[in-house]
TrEMBL record:
<dbReference type="InterPro" id="IPR052395">
    <property type="entry name" value="ET_Ferredoxin"/>
</dbReference>
<dbReference type="InterPro" id="IPR017896">
    <property type="entry name" value="4Fe4S_Fe-S-bd"/>
</dbReference>
<protein>
    <submittedName>
        <fullName>Ferredoxin</fullName>
    </submittedName>
</protein>
<dbReference type="Pfam" id="PF13459">
    <property type="entry name" value="Fer4_15"/>
</dbReference>
<feature type="domain" description="4Fe-4S ferredoxin-type">
    <location>
        <begin position="1"/>
        <end position="29"/>
    </location>
</feature>
Amino acid sequence: MLCKIIPEKCIACGLCQVYAPEIFDYDDDGLVILARDHSAHQEFIPKNEQADVLTAYRKCPVRAIEISEK
Ligand code: SF4
């Protein structure tokens, strides 16, 4: 699974880190970044973390998280 983030859409609600704290973090303005690589906008998600990412994807109110099967 490939996970992409779109910080330009993010409204800094903080929900994604509640559901997938190992994947999502925030910059100084509260906008989404990837926890493991702050400069990246996409990341391959290992199987054991995919359920959490799916939940975060579904909960994001502005679709600033995208996922695809790759
Ligand atoms: S759930 Fe969406 S809007 Fe909320 S902080 Fe995460 S990426 Fe941003």
